[in-house]
Design a protein that fits this description.
By secondary structure, this protein is mostly helical. It is 70% helix and 0% strand.
Length: 149
Amino acid sequence: MPTLKQKPKQRPFCFSVKGHVKILRLVLTVTSMTFFIIAQAPEPYIVITGFEVTIIFFFIVLYTVRLDRLVNCVFWPLLDVINSMVAAVFMILISMLALIPETTTYIVIGGVFGLAASVFCIADGALIYRKLLFNPSGPYQKTAVHDRF
């Protein structure tokens, strides 16, 4: 009698490494935005971090509820990688602009949290990029035809 192999259960998104990085990215961006709001920083600081909080929250809900599996017409990992890289650029730019003049302590703290969030944006993009590869375990190895037989 043949034995049936059970499929290994997939971990929920919130308990995966990608989920932890994305949630940590959300927490750091919210903290940065909070310090910018408390310090009454210029509006672009608050608006850009607010947009990033909204987009990160959208992706967390999307992956948690598994909507990425239901909506197949959009390639979600590619959108997530593009978002991560654009967010990293904007967060680095905003954080550097916040750190250069050193106007108030809260703006400097918000800039430091923004730089930490940009590091996690890059890490999040790298983790999701591995999902884009068809062979996520490593680079493509080309073999000769005569080696297959």
